[in-house]
Fold each of these.
Amino acid sequence: MIEAQGLTKRYGKTLAVDDLTFSVTPGRVTGFLGPNGAGKSTTMRMILGLDNPTSGQVRIGGKRYSELHHPLRTVGALLDAKWVHPNRSARAHLTWMARSNKLPLRRVDEVLDLVGLSSVAGKRAGGFSLGMSQRLGIAGALLGDPEVLLFDEPVNGLDPEGILWIRKFMHRLADEGRTVFVSSHLLSEMALTASELVVIGKGKLISQSSTEEFVARATDSTVKVRSPQLEALREALERASAQVEPAEDGLVVSGMDSAKIGEIAMQQGAVLHELSPQRGSLEQAFMQITGDSVEYHADLEAEARDVLAPTAP
Ligand SMILES: Nc1ncnc2c1ncn2[C@@H]1O[C@H](COP(=O)(O)OP(=O)(O)OP(=O)(O)O)[C@@H](O)[C@H]1O
């Protein structure tokens, strides 16, 4: 469990983190979402005691980082995958970490196996691809078998296979009952990875909710309906104050949920061939919620375009 209370960090004139209050619970992946420069890394550094808050506090399992007796057994983190000494092998790097933190050396081979690096354990980390470096970073985070894990932009720059691996691995860690907090500016990625979202912009909390709620709250949900008795159904829905638009082979209904639409269809004796809620994307949700902030809006629009754009042939 991570709990931030009024967490604030000022660097000179820059208010990097502004009165953040949120909590991250065990057993699920919580996404920490916001555009570049929103304050995600600064928040993570404060959670890990690498930076002191200007005001407010953050606790892990009820304690400040500096109060933890065995920090690596409580919280593991991947902040920058490339900080490993390039001439050290993966195994030598993890052994050094285990020794300096008084962790059992048998754990080194266990974590190498967990992240699938056993076969390259003796190779120089400097020759690793980004994906392998991320795995090594994750192995380091897992050395102390901690309950709480923090990952800062873990999929940045990875190929689709690497992204999928990280996503599955995070789900697995959460399924083991751990607290998994992962930052990203990739909105689509977070929709697939996280079931809970802490969303920030300009250092401030925009929302904390389930990913589903975040999208549902911020986008207009509609329901697609197909029926052989379309006209009669359309009239009945309009009489019940739903907004109805024609679609290619049916209707798109807003202002009414699918349960109510199904009841009205039954009363009309209309057969339903389709009754499917259409959800907006996380991108739309973020745009809507942060729409009043021109700076972020532009930034996010560009990001959403990058995320969603098909790659050029
Ligand atoms: N050590 C520092 N000194 C001065 N300003 C800083 C420092 N660290 C961060 N900042 C500023 O604080 C703000 C938040 O930065 P931070 O790196 O936490 O954002 P972020 O959401 O992690 O973005 P990114 O994904 O680009 O890293 C930015 O305006 C940044 O320039």
Amino acid sequence: MPPKRKASDIGSARASKISTPNPATPVSLRSEDNDEYLSGSNNQSDQDYVSGSEQEHINRFKKKTAFSSYSSKAKTNRARPSIFGSKDFSYLSLKPDHDNRPLWIDPSVSAGSKKGPKITLESFSPLAAQAEDFLITVAEPQSRPIYLHEYRLTEHSLYAALSVGLSGQDIIRTLEKLSKTPLPTTVSDFINRHTKSYGKVRLVLRDNRFFVESEEPTIIQMLLKDPVIESCRKEGAEVVQGTLANKAVVISGTSDARGARQTADQPGQNTEAPKEGRETKEDEIMKALRDEDDEEDPSKQTHSFEIGPNTREKVAERCLDIGYPALSEYDYQNDRVNPDLKIDLKPHTQIRSYQEKALSKMFGNGRAKSGIIVLPCGAGKTLVGITAGCTIRKGIIVLCTSAMSVFQWSNEFKKWSDVNSGDVAVFTSGEKEKFRGQTGVIVSTYSMISQTRQRAHDSEEMMKWITSREWGLMILDEVHVVPAAIFRKVAENVRAHCKLGLTATLLREDDKITDLNYIIGPKLYEANWMELADQGHIAKVQCAEVWCPMTIEFYQEYQSLSSRKQALLYIMNPTKFQVCQFLIDYHERRGDKIIVFSDNVFALKQYAEKLKKAYIFGGTGQQERIRILENFQHNDAVNTIFLSKIGDTSLDLPEATCLIQISSHYGSRRQEAQRLGRILRAKRRNDEGFNAFFYSLVSKDTSEMGYSAKRQAFLVDQGYAFKVITQLSGMESLPGLAFKTLEERLELLNHVLLQQETNADIANIEQIDEDLFSGRSGALNSHGKKKALVRRQAGSLADLAGGGQMAYKEQNVSRNKQLKKDRGPQSEYFKKEARARERRRKARQKEQADAAGVD
Ligand SMILES: Nc1ncnc2c1ncn2[C@@H]1O[C@H](COP(=O)(O)OP(=O)(O)OP(=O)(O)O)[C@@H](O)[C@H]1O
């Protein structure tokens, strides 16, 4: 039976079961009502499942949602009782050509709210691509499943739009054109309210002097009447006139100044050049919509006055207070004070269209804007940062979360750009380099720059060297994990004209992420994950949640225990173990490389040791980690590894094609996305019909289920559909299936119950300061002693969910010692390897001693 799919599946979980375990036959996850399959093979039928007949889906979807028909009917039947409550918008009249227009705009905006209207985009509309381009510039993406994408206008999103050169009127006009109904006045009021003053004032650094600049002389006069701002004006400084540096910027790695042109072009316009003789209906529609647009005046007059040294922050704060937030832009083309850096992308380096689009938001009007670019894991944020550096061509400082990322960044600079290797330096606890020339690139960690403790002499010297100079660009990697206090410390220590934040998941469980709007700048660009997957830049992933019923013995204990110990019971649930064993066996036989994630270290070891697989956690030594990862990459006998949360980020293993999650971090949406990111880079992503797999194993009827739903929210919004698998047919007959007998299960239960509560708590997981490849494990502290591999400290639950000051915290101090003791190879394979290595080492020593004639 051919695989089939219903449009109603979008972003929803559905009950399914695996019908056959035979790897020769594709695994089909069949729903209980028999109407759906999640195909588990990488063959063509998978592909069919994914793509199917798009038009048929759309038609079915339209019929199901009946938006158009409902709205049309509503016009003639206004008395009809509303089933939509306050969301009944049938009073809005549809435009006659509404079918050609892709947007539905929710008119309900509460007065004074910073959250504006919701906008729904029909992604199947002929104008969807253009509308999407426009929407990602002016609104926040909320949810982007297959057919309907939701965006929201917010104060900050409008701010970001203005920062790339749009005006409130541009936004209103374009929404009016793309909307199926006349634009509600509540919406235009919201836009006017939040755009009338944004972007009117700029703080510009020119020739190393700060200017307050505006295109409207009345605003400059108004600002000068303000006593605080007037007191910051440089003595004797006059108001001067000039023109806006509205030059097209050629972004390095692109053939022309398309990036810059895009923002000067009408928003929503397709950036691709029209193909000759192939003007489509969509082009015609868009052309008609564009006809009334004005061209931007390149010779716009500006008025500015200079402010005194060290008054920038005060002026910025005051401008915000009086409702005229000042945009900060770097006029790098006219910066003649800071030395130029000789850096360009290598001729073979070609940035991808979405990378170019992201950069065009940064360099829209010939100046560099500070802000954040959001791209999925593995989509190439590093190259975006490097290209920004090659465009500005002034001193660059890059800040990362770990020492290993520092070396990766430094190598990537050398790989993609022609920068002299002597112009790239690193600053970590182990390496303190300075570049040779007048300017260059320095890569360091947040902790090195923000440290407040007494520094060693050489570190102190390095800091003086860094803080005494002015940087053109500061790249802030993984901005979502760094606490605001650290950013502030960094900003105090390092002077940079422009800040670029990079992240895959602009998410924190506590909404502190909005602080980044002020600390770094607005979100400039957020890529669409599904689009990148369709284009083959990241892998397509099939996501499934596997429900594992608790065995009776475990469930009885579960009901009577404290919630901390309950966690260990649902993680160690024998059915979950069996499902994990079955999935590993199934995917190994298909030729997949599998990573199993467990936040709980006790469970990680129990699972891995029982299944005779290698594992890595915070206590695993550096050499051991490298050996395990190399074997996973190159040894056909090592196809599965178990990782603690140490592998959540910065893990570049393109061989991995399947993830199984057995224990995770409460409801952390960010961790779920980061973990998925580990397989988005899959090498085989462009093989025909290839899918990577992401399984989350959840013990049924336990609190784990609630967490699981919360965790998936972000990915569902990115368009991933989680299937629910309730039964794995054939599992019972798997040879060597663990815990089949009651005796075995009771033994496991006893073992679990004997564990300390600290082992049981899923919060009892490592505080990982470094990533999997960290070179710091062997670093010495200032007293010449070896630093601990894993740092543990007390923290709250909010901290654990990434909501506090640190991304992850560890509550159990005593486990540190235990982890240290546990270091060393655990699996039989690696124990054998270690013994062989030791034998080789002794033989070498003997040879050398013989050669030297020593007894
Ligand atoms: N324009 C490009 N051309 C060729 N390869 C590219 C390009 N952009 C990125 N890549 C490659 O894609 C891979 C992922 O890039 P990168 O490590 O920068 O991703 P990332 O977004 O930082 O991922 P993560 O969030 O997981 O750290 C790398 O192997 C990189 O070399």
